Amino acid sequence: MGKNKEAKVQKKRERKELIIRRKKRLGKKIYRGSKLSALYRFYRDYESKVLLNSRSKLIDFLEKNCGEIKFKSFTHKIPKVFSLKKNYEPTLKIIFEINKSIFESRGVGILISLDFEDCEQVDLPSLFLLQVCKIELQQDLKRISEKLRAVKLVPKIEVKKSKENSVNKQLWLNGFISRDQVKIENDQLNPIDTIGFLHGRKRQSKYSENRKGKITTYTVRYIDKCLNDFGYELDPTGKGFVEGIISELLNNAEDHSPFDSWYITCNYFKKEMGSIEGLIGELNIAIFNFGYSICEGLEDNRDKNNSQFNELDEVYKAYLSKVGPISKENYFTLLSLQEGVSRLKYLDESRGTGTIKFINSFLHLGDFENDQFKPHFHIFSGFTNLICDSKYKPFEKEGRQFLAFNDKKNLLGKQDANYLKDLALKFPGTLFNAKIYFNEEYLDKKVNGKDS
After folding, report:
1. Rounded to an integer, what distance in angstroms lies between the CA atom of residue 48 and that of residue 42?
2. In the prediction, which pLDDT does 20 show?
3. CA 116 to chain centre
4. Whole-number Å distance between alpha carbons of 362 and 350
5. CA–CA distance, 75 with 72 (Å, rounded to integer)
6. Nearest C-alpha neighbor of 282 from the set 173, 442, 168, 437
7. What are phi and psi of 227, to 5 degrees?
8. Which of 172, 221, 312, 381 has the fewest CB atoms inside 10 Å of its own CB, making it the most exposed?
């Protein structure tokens, strides 16, 4: 009897709250005889209109920077090659379309289907970007749902796994399917674990700095844990150095983002090669932020950073006159990676070292390579895709580190278009991705050879 009485009291409270909320929102008289079901129908209809007119910060940003995104379907057939590295434009377009459909499903309860069945290749940048977009959309939907009572905002997403097990391994590590949907194959690279998707914001500076420091330390510990498989770890100096360059990259991510936020992820695979080469470990690291491109960052601060910008502009003009056409976006992105170049140089003379040191350090740390495994570093920013590997990587000259994509290591020489790529569709921010490999025998040779 007591429970029934409590239920009646609770129901009465809910009805009273609904009446008050309706009065506040619409300013209309509510008659005492109104029934809860009638109020519910009223709110449902009213909130459906709210949903219809609601906006997404993410979708608005993508459409403003990358063009209109057309809603096509709630079912998405993922292409055979879902990879920003190997199939850039179709992959980016379908990521945009998936997010548009997630937002369009708000309040409707329609299932969003991601069908990877025929997908044969994926990469970390594509899955990372897709998950980050989903996280940002959830924030948008949460903000909208705070205004609602009758209509629920719970987007349902179903992921159909691939026939290709190597794809499923990536889907599992990136949070799309469960562990029991993946087969472990003794003769293949197998997924071990991931740090997940770590997210930080610039707001509330003291808290933000503390969180950034914790995430940076956690990331370096994860790298150390992977090295432990091969009997090695970073010494205190090495840990401090790696923490420093990751921290600067995260600072850059904040500076370039109207969202004031950044994301970082790492995952690890390994494979036993046998008695000759032993264990192979693959470490993947990615850092991403929405926002303007590296080139746009330099352009936006040209007045405050006038001296440096003019120097870069003169180098660009010299290249055009000596070599020939190259887009300003592509060339300025390359120039921005040279040690000492930064859009915020006018604020801090030490800025402008993080990216090139990150590239150089990770390619040096995990530069084991054979016919099957090739370490590389990718940057996607605006209309530019920049790639480093054993063919072209940072070099030192007169105490500074530089990067050029030709055999002569010359910034005023023709750059290899396979490594400095012009993109037809603008990337909605900046993404760094390092893929490196560890091998015990190779690490032993580096250490015994006193390779610091």
Report:
1. 10
2. 60
3. 20
4. 21
5. 9
6. 437
7. -65, -30
8. 221
Q: Give residue limits of the domains in the chain.
A: 35-183, 187-452
3-state secondary structure of 351: coil
Coil vs helix vs strand at 169: helix
pLDDT in tens, 230-262: 999 998 988 888 888 888 888 877 766 667 778
Each residue's pLDDT tens digit, 186-215: 888 999 999 999 988 765 555 555 678 899
- Could you give the count of Cα atoms lying within 13 Å of 34 in the half-sphere of its Cβ? 18
In the chain, the amino acid numbered 328 is K
Burial class (CB in 10 A: 0-12, 13-18, 19+), 324: exposed
DSSP state of 151: S
Rg (CA), the chain: 26
Token pair listed for 156: 């349902």
Paired with 400 in beta bridges are 397
**Is the separation of the CB atoms in 53 and 94 below 8 Å?**
no
Count, residues in the chain: 452
Helix/strand number for the chain, H first, E second? 13, 13
Task: Give the β-pairing of 121-122 and 395-397.
Answer: unpaired
DSSP lists the bridge partners of residue 38 as none
> Distance from CA of residue 227 to its chain's centroid?
24
Largest CA distance in the chain: 91
Which tens digit of pLDDT belongs to each residue from 18-47?
Answer: 656 554 544 444 334 444 566 566 666 777
Contact 430, 70 (CB under 8 A): no
Pick out the chain residues at pLDDT < 70. Answer: 1-7, 9-11, 14-44, 150-152, 202-210, 255-258, 274-277, 342-354, 450-452
